[in-house]
Structures are given as C-alpha cells and as structure tokens.
Amino acid sequence: MRSVDRPLRVAALASGRGSNLAALIAARLPVEFVLVGSDKASAGALSVAADAGIPTVFLDPRDYATRSDFDRALFGRVAEAGADLLVLAGFMRIIDASVVADWEGRAINVHPSLLPKYRGLHTHRRCLEAGDAEHGASVHFVTAELDGGPVVAQARIAVHADDTEASLAARLLVEEHRLLPAVVAAIASHRLRWDGQPVFDGVPLASPLDIATLLP
Fold it and tell me: Which InterPro entries does the UniProt entry name for this protein (predicted)?
C-alpha cells in the first residue's frame, strides 16, 4: 500500500456529524490525514476536519449528470490528495461499482451491524424487531456490493430488554469509536493488509477479528 518510511495517508468521506471521524482523530494514530470529503455542505464532519487542520472538500451531487460522474469527481479528489487508505465514516451514498473497483483493498467502511446481518439502513430497528440477543459494528473492505465486502473486525454488545433504537444506537456508537481506530491502526502498522483478501499478521482472515484482538 505504501513505503514503510512514511505514515499512512488517510482520507475520509462522511455525510453526517462526523463522530467516527472525530474518534479517529482523537486516537492520535501514526497516520497523516490528507483530506475529508462530503456530499453534504452542512456535514459536521467537515467542521471536525477543519478544526483539526485537515483539508476538506464538498462536492454537490446535483452538479453532476450521473451518480458515476459525481463519484469519479469526489474519488478523484481523494486520489489527488495522495491517500493510501480511504475511510468511509458515515458516507451515506451507494458508490458506483467501477469507481469502487479502482480502490479495491484501499477503502474500508464502518457499519452498525454484525455483518452480513442488516446491510443498509435502520440496523438498530431491524435488530430489535428480530429479537436478537446481541448487536454490533463491523469494519469491512469496500466492494461494489452494499456493505458486502470482506469483514475484518467486529465489536459486539448485548441487547437489553428495555432497549430502544436510540439507546441501542448510543451504546453501539461507543464501540464504533473504538473499532474503527483500532482497524486503521492495524493497517498503519502493517498488521492488517490486503492481498486479494484481508491478511492479518501474515495469515489470511478466515473470520472477522474481535476488537479485543486489535486493542493493546
């Protein structure tokens, strides 16, 4: 992905408040943040990045004729920034398959479910409606399939009898804020890499890592 004599260059895309981005920045990882981009001018993530001195870019999807045109423009800005790794941290768009293909093994996403369960939206509601005993968050490499790329790590929480969507989401967000930095740290230290598939400590991943494996 990069030479070993410089930090991992990280770019992030986000559509919302940027809490996962803030957790990444607060973790003080041995990385260089080169760009934060968004499809929403009002995204809190842009303010989080600006406050941290990270370059930002906003592109409006309405300015482009097709979804593919927008994706190529935004991902082009990421490439121009020199990113080694692209982190989708609450980026709420389905990305054109041909654009994703150019970033195989170089883009990860954090998703609030124990994938392959509950791809897409409303994961907390669907977990409660199914009566699941546990819920969780996953980090996976991005592919053209929505939330369908190889999962590299997960964090789990118990579902309480009195949980609501809001309470479940709030408790899981704490784990997301631990999980995403842990995965980026593993990539930055070369413990986790892509070789046609996820490889951890030199061994192809047969199943997702538990967050405890990644934490000091």
Answer: Formyl_transf_N, Formyl_transf_N_sf, GART, GART_AS
Which of 2.40.50.140, 3.40.50.410, 3.90.1150.200, 3.40.50.170 is the CATH number of 8-196?
3.40.50.170
Is 19 part of any known ligand binding site? Answer: yes
Q: What pLDDT digit, counting tens, does each position of 38-54 carry?
A: 999 999 999 999 999 99
Q: Is the pTM of this model over 0.70?
A: yes
Q: Where are the beta strands (DSSP E) in the chain?
A: 8-13, 31-38, 56-58, 85-88, 107-111, 134-141, 151-158, 192-194, 198-200, 203-204, 209-210
> Do the annotations mark residue 53 as ligand-binding?
no
1 is in an annotated binding site: no
Residues 6+ apart with CB under 8 A from 5: none
pLDDT in tens, 88-114: 999 999 999 999 999 999 999 999 999
